[in-house]
Amino acid sequence: MLEFAYRSTGAFEPVFHSHPFYEVYYFHEGKCNYLIGDRIYNLAPGDLILMYGMTLHCPKIDPSVPYIRSIIHFEPAILRFYTDLPQAAPILQPFEQFKNHRLCLRGEDKEEAERILLRMHGHQARGDQVGAGRLLLAFADLLHFVYDRCLSSLSEKREFPSDKERAVQDIIELLERKYTDDELDMDSLQRELHLSKSYLAKIFKEVTGATIFEYVYRKRVNEAKILFLLQPDLAVTEVSFRLGFKHLAHFSRLFKQQVGMTPERYKRQLRIDRSGLPETGAWHEFV
């Protein structure tokens, strides 16, 4: 499966969504905050985002200016004709290693990316078998371009050299799934991971420099900030309970520690300087 929308301008309802395929998103122009998982990217023209798919993501745009983006959805299997060749570059490695990643393309890099997208559009417009084949080849060229510009970042990513660090990665993956569970505690982590509570606490602190629940609370507060931005009508109490806090006072105290202001004040500040980001819009297939 390969779906390509070139310079799409459709409006949409801003909701978090995910999908089981990979995505390449290129931002041409407009005003947009792109929310991916617990990250908020303030986009500029030339930004290209790789998305692994299953991470929840949502663009939040200002409808007073044109929002123009090119989006490619694809299943990795369509590239097997190339990736299985001897000496083939591992062009899917950035998706597999980073999961989600932004490239800020400027100058000649921006021009080259836009030339490839335009060429893909021309092939797609043919609407025949030859056009489809050349579209796929041009897309493979785009992925080579992206891989080339990810090489330095890829080399900086280190493998997990020890059982201890692999175990910490398992803890993090579990926390990413369970962080809103109001029953999350060290006993449940011990049952899930089949490692003692004391060992889990010890290795997590050694590898990350933070405790397990410092990580959980940081994740929850980051998610709260995203909810306040994306759904400004949500009450602070509702956000607190959604994110696994049993007591509003606990949530408010942690939020103020991390953000420097109470959640109520943060919501008020967003209304003042949210840069005109909208609260509603019409849904479009390619967001």
Automatic annotation (TrEMBL):
Gene3D superfamilies to which the protein is assigned, alphabetical: Homeodomain-like (1.10.10.60), Jelly Rolls (2.60.120.10)
Keyword Transcription tagged: yes
Record's keyword terms, sorted: DNA-binding, Transcription, Transcription regulation
InterPro entries, A to Z: AraC-bd, Homeodomain-like_sf, HTH-like, HTH_AraC, RmlC-like_jellyroll, Tscrpt_reg_AraC-type_HTH
Ranges where the HTH araC/xylS-type domain occurs: 169-269
SUPFAM superfamilies the record matches: Homeodomain-like, Regulatory protein AraC
Family matches, as PROSITE patterns: HTH_ARAC_FAMILY_2
Pfam families in the record: AraC_binding (PF02311), HTH_18 (PF12833)
Protein name: AraC family transcriptional regulator
Organism classification: Bacteria, Bacillati, Bacillota, Bacilli, Bacillales
